[in-house]
Amino acid sequence: MSLLDFLIGRPLASSEERAEQIGTAKGIPIFGLDALSSAAYGPEAALTLLIPLGLAGVTYILPISAAIIILLLIVFLSYRQTIAAYPGGGGSYTVARENLGTFPGLLAASALLIDYVLTAAVGISAGIGALTSAVPSLHSKTLLLCLAALAIITIVNLRGVSETGGVFLVPTYLFLATMFTAIGWGVLKTMLSGGAPQAVIAPPSAPHAVEAFSAWLMLKAFSSGCTALTGVEAVSNGVRAFREPTAKTAQRTLGIIIGCLVIMLGGIAFLTHSYKIAATDPNGSNYQSVLSMLFAAISGRGVFYYVAIFSVLLVLIFSANTAFADFPRVCRVIAEDRFLPISFANRGRRLVYSEGVLVLAFLTAALLIAFGGVTDRLIPLYAVGAFLAFTLSQAGMVAHWKRQGGQRVRTNMFLNGLGALATGITVLVVILAKFMEGAWITVVTIPAILLLMYRVRSHYDKTLEQVASPGPLDIEKTPNLRVVLPMQRWSALAKAALCSAFAISDDIHAIYVSGAGEEHDDFREQWEQDVVAPARAANRPVPKLVCIESPYRFVVAPIVDYVLELAKQHPDCRIVAIVPEIVERRWYNYFLHSQRATLLKTNLLMKGTNHISVLNVPWYIE
Amino acid sequence: MSLLDFLIGRPLASSEERAEQIGTAKGIPIFGLDALSSAAYGPEAALTLLIPLGLAGVTYILPISAAIIILLLIVFLSYRQTIAAYPGGGGSYTVARENLGTFPGLLAASALLIDYVLTAAVGISAGIGALTSAVPSLHSKTLLLCLAALAIITIVNLRGVSETGGVFLVPTYLFLATMFTAIGWGVLKTMLSGGAPQAVIAPPSAPHAVEAFSAWLMLKAFSSGCTALTGVEAVSNGVRAFREPTAKTAQRTLGIIIGCLVIMLGGIAFLTHSYKIAATDPNGSNYQSVLSMLFAAISGRGVFYYVAIFSVLLVLIFSANTAFADFPRVCRVIAEDRFLPISFANRGRRLVYSEGVLVLAFLTAALLIAFGGVTDRLIPLYAVGAFLAFTLSQAGMVAHWKRQGGQRVRTNMFLNGLGALATGITVLVVILAKFMEGAWITVVTIPAILLLMYRVRSHYDKTLEQVASPGPLDIEKTPNLRVVLPMQRWSALAKAALCSAFAISDDIHAIYVSGAGEEHDDFREQWEQDVVAPARAANRPVPKLVCIESPYRFVVAPIVDYVLELAKQHPDCRIVAIVPEIVERRWYNYFLHSQRATLLKTNLLMKGTNHISVLNVPWYIE
């Protein structure tokens, strides 16, 4: 237990909830890392698709970024309203389920869960990828580094919300500071130079154009750039983690996150255009990230460059944290509706939904291992989930306002409707543009998860039906007990077990299993003398001794068979199978005793019926 | 279960013992493979040490082989007598323990057990080594092939004695046939050519001498060659596996094994001398085994050569089988004396001591994995164990005859005394000659195993003392039962558990665990209505409802604490903790229910006392 204390910290009492609640300063690292870090890959993803257009591509990044920023603002306004309407936590699942029905809710939930697993895997692998391109000697350790980063994030999250915010505070604000400095500096230079700044280190010249402008290419670039929007819904899922007034604090946090993201996306688009930075082929030997070229063009490769690149790297790795903050919360809400195992709703020792954290860590590790730590191929998969959830959530909000009515109902409905429309169109665009590259996997996986959730729920319903409302206790019907007691020799343990048997019933069957043709006169004699005689003397019913021959040397099976047979013959009785057991206080003595008691208990439990219970009588060896 | 049937076969009834007993034909593969296969490495091991003497070394192989053969014959005569004297199985352990005392017995046993583990690992690795030198493309798969061979041998042995003999019959007799053919053919050629036969393919010429003759070198060569004697004691351990008349059949089997081995050792020595075959450096690039050079010299590299080499390879791999035949038997005898866990004495479904087979397989696999499948470095370790066991066993026989008296007591004592003396000197020689190369490891490991065995025994003695002879049942002292029943809601399961509680006691404590500050009025109300009211109406004592607040959300710990506290307060009572449990018939539903019942049972068993028993009341979900 002390190792657990060391790793995860002492248990927190339920009453310490308040101390675990967070303000804006910690909320940004916890719920905003995913959104903010997308500044590091969103524009790059769009620019990469524009490579075939040559230098002209750099021009098109401006309208594409503008479209993405507009979409981002629509989604922001929409989620701002959701937070106000659902101060108890308004994830896509809750909003869609309450307003559109169970199916849309679960659809949103499963899309979102897939998206979070992908976010965690891609975030870690992108960050470690950036690290290994900076320090090539680490390249062979990629998977190990990924898993180490995953382990750190998992442990930090298990330590509780407040601690998580503290740990990720420094990298987040370092990243924001360097990004803002670079953008401000670059914009200043551009203005001073009249729109054509001189790069300190010139980016590689853009390749020759091999394709002409086409709407399809623009759509693909736009849908790639849309990965920048994933992570926006995180805050609305986690409203309850915020300090009072929760909704206001959450809204402010979301506002700051989106504000920062808009500045970064806009700034990067503006500067890549004015410095004429085209993306380089990610699979080519001269690959350099857009941010790296941008920093070098603005500041040269000095201290600032390396600090900035390092902070980008940290933020990419820790962007996985947003998934860890939200995945367990989403699972918990679904589990409370019994569509996932109820254990997801249990709060662990640090008031965190530990099972969700661990399941996410497990799934992420599986993905990382399956792909050897390089998850580039997963990038096309994500965004689909996020945008599907966005759409359902916004559509749900429209229904919410319609039902709710109120003063500003039209404005509200318009804002959320606009969000639903914009994100709905984006889903279609993303699926179309990326279907063959992997989006089809998401499209196939979602129904599988949905099916699983429905089966979980139907199992719980069936269980509940069988167990619930049993009516009052019928005291008259207290059943007769018959006791079955296996006994191989007359020992202190056997005696204790037999005493217990006498205490609960007068109908005792002692079972002795012998090998084929084995003599058991010794045991019979001892039985007569030490059991039968005292029972007669005390005028109590004599226990029945049943000897069973076991030709195949099995000991457990004949006892189980006897118990089952007895239960069948006396359906009105309750059978108590006594299992005497020698218990070792020290684990290393475990191997010295036969594990028959454990085997017998397991077998009785597996094959038994509602009328058979097992009384485990232990005897401790000191 | 059907997979187990397929792999290991249907269970054999104890009465089928006779059909599992074997004659000479199957006895040779089962108990003789280790001894016979030593013809393939014993002479080579001696010749390798003679390399520094150049061509002169080939001459010295004659007296060294003669010494080894004489030792072998002495050990044979000695063990022949042991078999006659111990028809129930006369391993070194039994003989030494009965005649010299417990300590020498256990010393012999632990030496022998180490030796068997090494035999298994070295046999498999030597055979696979021969295979990979023949087919170099398999080299990278060495460990995998070793483990596959180990798996095959393990499964065959788990299938029973008779089957094992059948499987290894063909390779054994193929090996004997090719060896005898080669030796007969070579001897004939030598005679016809007047002692200087012409090799079909000449062996590489012997290296130049770099050392002169020394007694130390002879001793080292002799002790290396002595590895040829390991495996001789196998038959005497397994006498009981033979058909009636067991002792005679066993003696005949041993005689044939030793006869074959003597012919092979003598023949190889004679022919390496007449063909002037010196060993080649095993680490050199031109390495070729002595047998390979010999076969090539006699027959050229035709079909015969390849068949012969292939049979050597099979016999080397399967020589591990002798260890699998004997290790479980030795463990079983020791376990019956309670110096090893008693489970070693249980016969599995195929009448084999399965646990010994599995433990040997596990230890061998661990060695193979630790050494990557190349266990050359282990060769110096083995022989020590075997010869130590030989010595103790022969010395025990001397004491046996002395006590027993009888007609031929002097001859018998002389034969076994000679055996003890010869093998005793050999142990010293082997330890001296190979101490630094690894024999010290055996010398250190034996005391560790001895210590373990004594601790196992003392634990059993202590247990027995606490459990045995409890005296007759005191029926008057049947204890009062107090029942503790955890209850979180009023369900069919809770009702069944409460019915059981009423059936066994009038003193019932129902425990309700609530979170800090949680309301539980609903439950109280239902309790009053569905439990208290019917109990009052039936004029039965009302169960006590205990509500416990759990600030850290733990549920199991407060219940366990309550039970322990109650047991402390009422030392004269027996506490029955009822654990209601929802049981799933399908394993994949396992995750859908909290595992609190399992946790509670485990915790109660771990922390409990002799006065606390656990009544598991299951409720099956159909």
In short:
Chain A is of the alpha/beta class. Chain A has helices spanning 2-8, 17-20, 24-50, 55-85, 92-100, 102-134, 142-158, 161-192, 215-225, 234-237, 246-274, 290-299, 303-318, 320-336, 354-370, 384-404, 409-467, 492-504, 521-537, 556-569, 596-607, and strands at 481-486, 508-515, 544-550, 574-584, 612-621. In chain A, strands 3-2-1-4-5 form a five-stranded parallel β-sheet, sandwiched between helices.
Describe the protein.
Two copies of one chain form a homodimer. Chain A is an alpha/beta fold and 622 residues long. The first copy, chain A, has two domains: 2-203 and 211-460, Up-down Bundle (Amino acid/polyamine transporter I); 476-621, 3-Layer(aba) Sandwich (Rossmann fold). Chain A has 21 helices and five strands. Chain A has helices spanning 2-8, 17-20, 24-50, 55-85, 92-100, 102-134, 142-158, 161-192, 215-225, 234-237, 246-274, 290-299, 303-318, 320-336, 354-370, 384-404, 409-467, 492-504, 521-537, 556-569, 596-607; strands at 481-486, 508-515, 544-550, 574-584, 612-621. In chain A, strands 3-2-1-4-5 form a five-stranded parallel sheet, with helices on both faces. In chain A, α6 (102-134) runs antiparallel to α13 (303-318), α9 (215-225) packs across α17 and α14 (320-336) crosses α15. The model of chain A has no long low-confidence stretch (mean pLDDT 88). Chains A and B meet through α17, α18, α19, β4 and α21 of A and α17, α18, α19, β4 and α21 of B.
